[in-house]
Structure formats: C-alpha cells, structure tokens
Amino acid sequence: MKILIFDYDGVIADSLDFHFRVFRKLAEKYGLGAIRSRKSFVKLLDDNFYESVVREGMPRRRLPEFIEETETCLMKRKVRMFPAMKMILKKLSGKSTIFVVSSSITRVIKRDLKLNGIKVEDVIGGDRERSKTAKIMGIKKRFPSCRIFYIGDTTGDMKEGKAAGVTTVAVTWGYHRRKALEKEKPDFIARSVKELERILT
Questions:
Q1: Cα–Cα–Cα angle for 190, 176, 150, rounded to 5 degrees
Q2: Comparing C-alpha atoms, which of 52, 1, 6 is closest to residue 168?
Q3: Where are the domains of the chain?
Q4: Which pTM was predicted?
Q5: Per-residue confidence at 167, pLDDT binned at 50, 70, 90?
Q6: What strand order describes the sheet that includes 2-6?
Q7: To which CATH superfamily is domain 2-13+80-200 assigned?
Q8: What's the rounded Cα separation, in Å, for the pair 70 and 153?
Q9: Nearest of 37, 19, 35, 3 to residue 142 by alpha carbon
C-alpha cells in the first residue's frame, strides 16, 4: 500500500493570492512589515514557513497568536481547488491512504476538503505541529512497511520531505518555479496533474 502525503496550498488549493492578502493584513502587527511583495512572501517558503517568519523578525512566542489570527482570517472564505487535483484525489483515495500535511490551518483545510467531497485519512496543519518533517515522520512511524510519497510545491517542502526520508514529488503549478524546485533534487517532478497521477499509481 502507498501512503500519499499532500501539501495543501499550491498543490491542491489555488491559494497564493488569498494567502498573500491575509499575510499582508497581519504582517505589520507581527514585526514582518518589511515583507511587502508577493516575491518576498513566497521566499518565506524556501524553508519551513514558521522558522522563516521568526528569522525575519517575528518573536517566536507570538507564533501561536499569529496562527490563531490567521485561522480567523482564512475561515472567512473558502479557497478554490485546482479542478484536476480535485478529480485525482477522489480517484487516488480508493487505492491509497491519503494525508494532508500543511503549514496552513487544520480546520480550514478540513472544511474545504469536506465542501469538495474529498475524504482523507487525516489533516495535520501548522496549528497542530509546525515542522512538516515531524508530521511526516509521525505518519512514517504508523506505516513502517509502506512506500511514502510527499507531494509539495516549494523548496521548503522538498527539504522537509527529504529530512523525513520519504519519496519527494515536486509539482510545478504551485508557489515555487520548476527551476528552484530542481535545485532541491526531488525524486520526481510533475509538470501536470496527469504526470503526477502516473508517478503515484
């Protein structure tokens, strides 16, 4: 049995513009006022998002407050899913065990998946554990004899997936460009949802 672990934003959800607007709304309050452009926001995902915002000036003790306020903003509207990803998730869920591991908020992701009729084993957001490596390792311990894939769209995703010792798959329709993803040497690169399906089946 294969275990498929998907990042959410940029892989399943077409959320960059909305997330950037929410971030800009909160940035000044949390000492991140210097991050004004979409490019500098996306750069926060070169590594673990929460470690990046601390490095850029947010006091670590304020992370729980930041996560809570982000959740309030994100719950105000639902995010559009990539239509082809919606289809592939429904298809793959009959053959594999699917998890979602994200820096975003568990409750928000669960709501959006439910609204789109997508069932997964579990959703582990940044409110439950900030490190994606730790989250993936936790799943790995539950399924020691299974091949595990982590599907992400940022260099940070690839770094954390590799650190957890799972098969990494980079998709090129998300937050980071293919050239940046290639530098992290993922096990696979999917340039389309069809190609992703071939890799995972």
A1: 50
A2: 6
A3: 2-13+80-200, 16-74
A4: 0.95
A5: very high
A6: 122-124, 97-101, 2-6, 147-152, 167-171, 188-190
A7: HAD superfamily/HAD-like (3.40.50.1000)
A8: 21
A9: 3
